[in-house]
């Protein structure tokens, strides 16, 4: 049988086919995604689940003139393949290759950048209103949103607005009952009932109550049915809502049966679906250090509760859910709610550990300021995925947290150097804290095998000296200290004795706020050159705090800040990205030599 996908470079090629041929295209598209992702890694299950929806949209609508927005963008692999990126799809998420999420810089078919969830309805509604104002009344605007994403507050804000507009907007709900972890909440339970009791689709329908033309639920893998319904909806004016039932991981048995793991399974055998085992690391992931430590402390302190916005597995709060389900709360994709929920708990004497990826805490900034810090409530924010995260790219790098949190009064900011420090600050937080604290740590493994040592209390605002030298002081925060230490070894190995690492002192300041000013006075009294190193943005971050200290105390030192430059960093391995921006150990060694 002739391979149809081979001859499809863009949707205009797809539209030349007969509708009866599209089922074959769907089979080939699934096989193509599985073939590439099995060796190159990436998000798998979500894109497999929307193959028929993707084909139907591009077949019936005039994309890119008709505007299509995905939510979240890890559903969009099939979309990318059908819109001119088939030949370089093997570069997906690799440095210099195509991004893992739709990006307006990458293709005219990517109408909106979608790395974070629940933005599609707002964006598509904005586009639809703009089309009305420009007199483009026939233009179509489609938002494909998952059932986990639509439960977010932002999505409901957009639904509320869209329902009283005359926008030519079609929302397709991809309902598979799972985001990364299984979907949660009352809306999820309602959608489940709609699937089994079709009367709810007619009576007491939430979406209809918001003035949408609701249709469904329909089988999202029944391609003729999807085509028929979309064809009908093209001629319906105003806001429309199509409820589609799909199976995440459709077409690969293991992905259907283990949807959490096969959201992003790593490398796997494309025939059997079995994951290819990686060499097991001797070291522990930072998220697991957090997850295991909080369970250990929760056994001793019944006031401890854990909160996460839809990241039970990713944050390793799943360990606490297994052990203490009544004290663990997955609130769905609702970062704002998670933060204020934690604040409410703190007012009643509980000790909430609110675990949110650094990049996602940005979505709850007002709540951090207004509901937590302003009231000085002792919420413990555990910011996973801080710093560069790698292949997920600019939407997911946690590089702004030090800068955007440092300006908030009452808030303590701590960056552990290693697993033991993370373990001890978690212990300290639940023991003595009177203020909110943000603890930020990276994705991936640490550097210490035997990290489960007896707890030690950390003195708030206290930095430490790691290495003594004679000429220049290197000040770092967080796990970037490892690269600094490796840079010293390179200096001794690659440079002559005149440039020995004995010239450099190394201080782990640990706390970005409050700064250890006593230690800083000692440093500024001893060294003429100060170099700061951080894996956060230079603008407004840790280095800026040191510059402010020097200015406030009239120090006239040579100070150089090293960190993330004032630009959005693309996707690629963490090591490659560090090398590109000068934060790898080799680049640091050269910079230390030049700047001292």
Q: Could you walk me through the main structural features you see in this protein, from its secondary elements to its overall organization?
A:
By secondary structure, this protein is α/β, with parallel strands linked by helices. The protein folds into 3 domains: 5-263, 3-Layer(aba) Sandwich (Rossmann fold), CATH 3.40.50; 286-440, Thiamin diphosphate (ThDP)-binding fold, Pyr/PP domains (Rossmann fold, 3-Layer(aba) Sandwich); 464-595, Rossmann fold (3-Layer(aba) Sandwich), CATH 3.40.50. Strands 7-6-8-9-11-10-15 form a 7-stranded mixed sheet, sandwiched between helices. It has a 5-stranded parallel sheet with strand order 1-2-3-5-4, with helices on both faces. It has a 5-stranded mixed sheet with strand order 12-14-13-16-17, sandwiched between helices. The longest helix has 19 residues, at 22-40. The model has no long low-confidence stretch (mean pLDDT 92).
Features:
596 residues; Rossmann fold; 3 domains; 7-stranded mixed sheet; 5-stranded parallel sheet; globular
How much of the sequence is in beta strands?
A: 15-25%
CATH architecture of the largest domain: 3-Layer(aba) Sandwich
Sheet with the most strands? 7 strands, mixed
Task: Supply the CATH superfamily name of the largest domain.
Answer: Thiamin diphosphate (ThDP)-binding fold, Pyr/PP domains
Structural class comes to alpha/beta
Strand order of the largest sheet: 7-6-8-9-11-10-15
Total helices: the number is 25
Give a short summary of the structure:
The chain is of the alpha/beta class and 596 residues long.
